[in-house]
Write a structure and sequence with these properties.
It contains eleven helices and ten strands. The chain is an alpha/beta fold and about 280 residues long. The chain binds NADP nicotinamide-adenine-dinucleotide phosphate.
Amino acid sequence: MNFKEFGKTGEKLSNLGIGTWDIGNNINENVESIKFAVDNGVNFIDTAEMYGTEPVVARAINGYNRSDLFIATKVWPDHFDHDAVIKACNDSLKKLETDYIDLYQLHWPSKTVPIGETMKAMEKLMDQGKIRHIGISNFSVDQTKEAMESMNKYEIASNQVEYSMVTRDIERSGLYDFCRNNKIAVIAYSPLSHGKIFSKKKMIEELSKIGASYGATASQMALAWLMNRDNVFPIPKATNKTHMKENIASTEIRIKPEDMKKMDAMEAKYYEDSIASRHSSN
Ligand SMILES: NC(=O)c1ccc[n+]([C@@H]2O[C@H](COP(=O)([O-])OP(=O)(O)OC[C@H]3O[C@@H](n4cnc5c(N)ncnc54)[C@H](OP(=O)(O)O)[C@@H]3O)[C@@H](O)[C@H]2O)c1
């Protein structure tokens, strides 16, 4: 397993984290799957009050040294009022059966509660030692700036956003560069585009071709492409153990700069292909 610094927090996280949204109802299987990841070096697990998977994470991490793990969870916007944030955090601590959360994230920006009010509560939780870092999720550049400006004592550690070889919006919007310049870690959710990457046949073919020289599959190359970028931590979800093994093995792949360039260009290339095929079928 390879580790890298999480933004400017000084924390060393495994290049790959474990996503726990939509992991299905087989609790024993889910617990075993997370344990397998931890036994193989993953120290970063992401959940959220909204996923209902905090108790699954609690069961999975039971028995491990808590300080070896980095547990991230999220508060849902319905709970962004000051007192509701405090309550939601206490509830998450209970469900996670832990004394502290390593990264507490605002799941989505709120349309109603001013960010200053929410961040006041987040900073209070930091002061109380209930959370160790503050993160945001699904925040644009402007919303991230606003969140940064609303903090009095602490800094934003990370922004969790959708990012994959087929979903590159954060590059176009400038969010990727903004986070990198400000050393805000990017947690890449849906790094396999929620499985949709496998329907992009041409991209998968080309990824497999490049992957052959690394002994890697297309999905491993797609994850490695994220891990080989500055400051980015993908959190794939895998309920299937073969997938989990494959994803963990991808952390060892060091992609050569010339292959990174080819992979960087793929989305635009296949976007053009899909336009061309639409025109030719007209
Ligand atoms: N902050 C937010 O708003 C937000 C939003 C969405 C997601 N997330 C987080 O991001 C995590 C991951 O995103 P996601 O679940 O949307 O999608 P994802 O990780 O991009 O894709 C998951 C899908 O890919 C399959 N898969 C995983 N590894 C594979 C492999 N090696 N080969 C082939 N298929 C593979 C999984 O199948 P199996 O399950 O059968 O293994 C599943 O169908 C979530 O669990 C959640 O923690 C956060």
